[in-house]
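hi! just following up on the protien thing from before. the input was this:
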Amino acid sequence: MYDLLITNGRVVDGTGAPWFYADVAVANGRIVAMGRLAGRDARLTIDATDRVVCPGFIDAHSHSDATLLVNPRAESAVRQGVTTMLVGLCGFSAGPIALERVEQYRTDGMVFSFEGYTWTWRSLGEYRAALQAVHPALNVATLVGHTPVRLSAMGLDNRPPDAEELRHMQGMIQAALDEGARGFSTGLTYTPGNFATTEEIVELAKVLRSSGFAYQTHMRDYADGLLDSVAEAIRIGEEAGVPVVMSHMYPVGAKNWGAKAVAAIEMAEQARRRGVDVMFDITPWLRGGGPFSQCIPPWAREGGVNAMARRFRDPVLRQQIMQEIEHGAPGWSGWFPPQWDDMLISRVGRPEHRDWCGRSIGDLAAQRGQEPVAAALDLLVEDDGQFWIAPTIKSSADVDMILKHPLGIPIADGFALAPYGSLGQPDNPKSYGTFPRVLGHYVRERGVLGLEEAINKMTGVPAARLHFWDRGLLRPSLVADIVVFDPATVGERATYADPNQYPLGIDAVIVNGAVTVAHDTHSGASAGLVL
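and the predicted 3d structure came back as:
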């Protein structure tokens, strides 16, 4: 007897091949048969008539490292059809971290500043054990991030490492790989990642060679210096001899749209022609999203949030910081002109500031009777350096082109959240609606992607990138991570005004053979594994 039998569905198997009719049988957490199986005995049967049956979606870029510990049901992710996610991106992994740096990292690390969990680990292996102990509702893999490694070895010093410090960082990365990390990430607009030279990153990335895993980078500049940043990422992959993934690759700002997106893709294609394994991903929304602290001059961020706040209180330094935010400064990679009325606040650190969410910095500044740049500094101090913004920084044509390209895949770049409890504050809609948005907006409504093409980009391609050889496809003997959805109605409901809304059209989500979502309800299943 099968544990589960899904009948009458159109199977899109994750390879990119055309759909076909087949029933799918599951037993002991794996797919055991496909074909005409109607009438066979099963403990549970799902009728998928007029529905698509496909592999579970893989979110290859998530910042849910802490939120999964707060609420392991992973509501906003699994209800989208996500059955596996990768954390530890943009340089921010949960470990390894030196004991004396934990509190500073939790405060300054942004993706860890949630309430409702206890930090009990130091190594990445200990974090992975803590995560498995809470029994997440989906599968989780992690990278090792540059930020805690550098913070542990060098603090927040703005200088190259000496030979001993470099060896120490390499050893920490190797230990994390031995404990299960599936690659190495950097965040080169964040402190202290922005202090690292290309040469430092090359030497650290070389540790990946024996594993075959990729170097994944939040690049130094997505605005005027995008092409230099792409060149740096490719150079690191080429000199280190490892694959490279350019995270959320798109040009920022209207003057960079179009030609720079084309040029960045051409650079990636040229690198591949000479044997460099280059890939990229993108969030399928026109607004970006990230900590406002990125908009502070790098020198003013040195030393962490408390040191930054002290500079804001110094009249001379405050004036210099405001001038540079508005007009840039020589050598500041990543600066772009602020559009204050478009800088929506998408999440905050302190619960009492939740009413900021969905409002622009310009709007809040007018309410306070301040110039926007001055208000922005004060808001940042009041929120302990935590609030995030979501300005309109992408063009639709660029997103279409990057998403359509064979090297591009969609990512959420958000958090596993829930509209209740301590994670219930307003956030970015990408945390609730990214993968249904691809299927609704980009497939059904606009035809940017074909159905099979889109599912391949959300399943088979990221599975191969991360070496998930037993997931990402529908085949007998593979793990039963499966989504059943209605192609006629699937789509996001989340908006920037009302982000905490589950999507439409996701009928069932199966994780490791366990029905986790059905009929718009989370079953409470906790079958996820730390991979």
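The longest strand covers residues 2-11.
The chain is about 30% helix and 20% strand.
cheers
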